[in-house]
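Ticket #4471: complex job returned nothing on first submit. Input attached below:
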Amino acid sequence: MEDKEALQLIKNMTVGSKHSFDQFYETYIPFVFQIAYHMLGDYSEAEDVSQDVFLEVLQKIDQYDPKKGSVKAWLAVKTKSRCLDRLRKKRPVLVNRLEKMAREKEQGADMAFLEQIEKKIIFDALTHLPEAQREAIVRSYFNGETHREIAGAMEKPLGSIKSLIRYGLNNLRKQKNIVHWVESNGGDGK
Amino acid sequence: MKGNNHIPEETIIDYVSGELEEQEEEQIQRHLNECERCMEMAVHWRQLFDYNRREPVQPPPTLKENMWQMVHSKKTKKRKEIWKPVTAVCTFAATIGLLFLVFKGEMEEKPYEVVKNDEIPFETFHSTPNTKQLNIVPAVNHQQINGNMWINGDTKEMFLEVDGLPHYPNRDYQLWIIFSNDDVEGELLILQDGASRIFFQGIDVEKFKLIKASVEPKGGSTYQTGPDTFFVDFNH
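Support reply: We reran it on our side without changes. The output follows.
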C-alpha cells in the first residue's frame, strides 16, 4: 500500500469510515502485532500495545514525516517504543519476558537482538535486587551459564542458585512500576 | 555524538525491508559502514523481521472488533469537540501562529539539541560514569505525577521522564530550565498517554538552578503564565 493511500485511510477512519478501517487493519495490524508479540512475549500485552499504537496513529497523523520513512516504518518505531515503555513500567511483563527469553534460549532460539533491545531495561530493574540474586540472574539469563556453572563461580550449593533466581524474579515482580536508578553504579548491574 | 548525524530509525527500517530506491540504499549502506549505532539498529530490525518470518503469529480475531469500537468512540468524541465557538478557535489559531513564530526564532538560536518521546535514541547516557539521578517533586495539586531526571555534566546531557500528567485539551506542558545566572530556557513537553520524555544534548547541566514545568496555552509561552506541576531543585 502506498503511503499516501495509507494516510488517506487514517483520515477517513477519523471521520468514521469502516471500510477504510478494514483496509488499514488488514494491511498493517498483523505487522504491528508481530513486532509487539516478539518484543513482549505475551499475547494479551501485544494486543494492548497494538491498540495503543493504532489509536496514537489516528490522533497524531500530523506527526508523520514522510522524509523519515514509510508509514509502515513509522508504525514499527511506535510499536517498539510502546513495547519498551510497557516493559519499563510493568514489572510482571518484564519478568515474564525474562523467563520466556530463558525458555526460548534453551530451545536454541537466537534471541540476541531482543536481549540487546531489552537488556538495559532489565538491568535497570535488577539494580534494586540483593547482589547475590542479581548476579545469579545475570549469569543465568545473559551469560548463558548453567546453574551448575553459576554455583561453581559463586561458590554456593546448586540448590541456593535456584532459590536465588526464584527469589530474585519474585522480588522483581513486586517492584514498583517506575524504573529506579542507583546513582552509585549507573544502573549497569555491577 | 550528535543525534542529527544518525539516520532516522524509520529510514533504517525501510532500508532493511528493501523499500528504498537503489541510490538511497547505497547512501544508507555507506553510512552504516561508518556508524556503529545505526548499523546496530539495522541489525536489530533485520533480526526482528527474520524472527517474525520464522515464527509468525496472528492477532486474535477479537482485536479487530475491539479496535473498531475504540476508533468509533474516538470519532464520536471528536465530533462533539468540533462545535466550539468560532471566535475561540480563531483566537486560539492566532495565538498558536504568533507563538510558533516566537518559538521558531528562539529555537534556531538554541545552543543545545532536544529530542522528545519516540525520537529519543534508545541507548542514552544512563550507563555513562558520573550520571546522576534526581527525583521529580510534584506540585501540591499534582500528587499523581512521578518521574526522574538523569544528568551528566561530563557529557552535557539531560534526560527527563515524567508520568501521570493530566491531559488538558487546550493546554500544553512546558519545561522551564532556570540557570544559575537566572537565564531561562523553555521547552514544550509532548504528552503520550500522560507521560513525556525529553532528552537534551549539549546543555550546561552544571549551571542548572531549578527545573520546573507549568501548564501553558497550546503551543507554549515565552515566559511562565500557568501553575507549576512539578520541579527539580538543584540547590538541595
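Chain A has nine helices and no strands. Closing as resolved unless it happens again.
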